[in-house]
Amino acid sequence: MKKQQSIQRRLHSSYLFIVGLLSVPTVLLLLFLLPTTARYHQHINYISDARAIVDLSGARLESELWDIVAGNQAYQAGAQEHIMDEISTRLDRLLYETEIYESRQQVEAAVRLVDTMSSYMEELGAPSYRHSVMYSNEQILREIRSVSDLLHTVLQEYIFIEIGVISDINGQLRSCSIAITFLAALLLLVIIMAAVDSCRSVQRDIREPIGRLEAMSVQLAAGNLEARAAPPSVSELDTLTRSLNTMADQLDELIENRIADQRSLRKAEMRTLQAQITPHFIYNTLDTIVWLAQQKENQAVVDITMALTQFFRISLSGGSDYITVGQELSHVESYLKIQAVRYESIMQYRIDVEASLAPCPILKLLLQPLVENAIYHGIKKKRGRGLITVTGRRNPDQTMTFSVSDTGIGMPAERLAEVRAALTSDAGPQAGFGLYNVNQRIRLYYNNSGLDIQSAYRSGTTISFTIPCRMD
């Protein structure tokens, strides 16, 4: 047997798969861009240092030295040594950080030239030269200028090499961007194909078990109580399938175990009448679920399926005839949620029942047929949107009164009289299976007058009944 899988888990796995694939290009881009961009900026800084050295060793240094040679300032008062220190600092950094062989050769040559310039400057600042004639000082200045020109040539060659390195890095960035763009397009194609396949798989796994449940409900409606549905492949439909199979088992058991006396016989007849109504509701609901699945409304399919599961869980209620008011209201709310999907454009509902009534026992399936009657004979027959209101109140005499009101088409006085008469007639449920069933069961189990119906044409209908808060 195929292992059951959760639709929600499969969708979650698909989302993780898609997010994972989408993150691959971003991760690769970051892994490549971060170090490559760092290298790019590093070489830009190398060029900036080289240009700064050219500027320092050019006009700025020459201006300081000329003032000394011309006698405008003393050697000690000049900034030439500070300039040379800054040049040496920048060259030392370039020598330490430069890894490319050709660039390193140029830096080493520049270091040697700077050392030569420093030697000439030491001669210029030596005591024996401080009082020399200006001609000798100018000769030293020319030598320094000559070395400075060589330094500029070496540094220009260094800058040219570094520009080539930057060009290579830029090419790598461009190639990487193209490759990652191609990879992203390929992954997008894979994601689209995976999403389409996942969508088809989910639709198939929903449609097939629902089709089996629909076929089972049709067979049950036709009277074949041996019909059973196979376990579904998705876990969300497992509870619903088991509930339907259990319902079929219980229906079969009810028929085989009829009680002999008249009262028990009439109770069994009411259960059978109730069973005749249920398969049609199942068929319509499953048809709605199939339609939602075809529209790819997966979350709506899950919501209405869970509501239908809750509906049948309370309908079965361990075979007991009585449940609590809270369970009956939950049953009605599940039914209304299902019908709200089918009749969203024409129906609204409101449930207003005192909280203190929740633990009180009540004969099950009294309110749902009244709500169903309000939908099909009230709301659907009137133009525009209608409101269904379910109310429940505790009375001073330890009874509780429930009513189901609608703002539907209502009934003329003649039709209202016919419906009231049909409820108490022995000829059969001419007022409709739902109302007749509820009225007979209330009279049978609670020994009272049954349903009270009030209606006005084009104003709506209110159906109410009163039962004890405690069973006798």
TrEMBL record:
Q: What class of enzyme is it?
A: transferase
Do you know which CDD domains this protein is assigned to?
Answer: HAMP (cd06225)
Against InterPro entries, the record matches this protein to: Bact_2-comp_sensor_kinase, HAMP_dom, HATPase_C_sf, HATPase_dom, His_kinase_dom, Sig_transdc_His_kin_internal
Q: Where in the cell is it found?
A: Membrane
**Domain Histidine kinase: where?**
363-471
Entry protein name: histidine kinase
For this protein, the record's PANTHER family field holds:
SENSOR HISTIDINE KINASE YPDA
Its recorded reaction(s) are: ATP + protein L-histidine = ADP + protein N-phospho-L-histidine
Name all HAMP domain ranges.
204-256
Keyword Manganese present in the record's keywords: the answer is no
**The organism's place on the tree of life at top rank:** Bacteria
- Which residue ranges traverse the bilayer? 12-34, 177-196
Does the keyword ATP-binding belong to this entry? no
Q: What GO molecular functions are on record for this protein?
A: kinase activity
Q: Name one Pfam family in it.
A: HAMP
- Its EC number(s): 2.7.13.3
Q: Which organism is it from?
A: Agathobaculum ammoniilyticum
Question: Which key words tag this protein in UniProt?
Answer: Kinase, Membrane, Phosphoprotein, Transferase, Transmembrane, Transmembrane helix, Two-component regulatory system
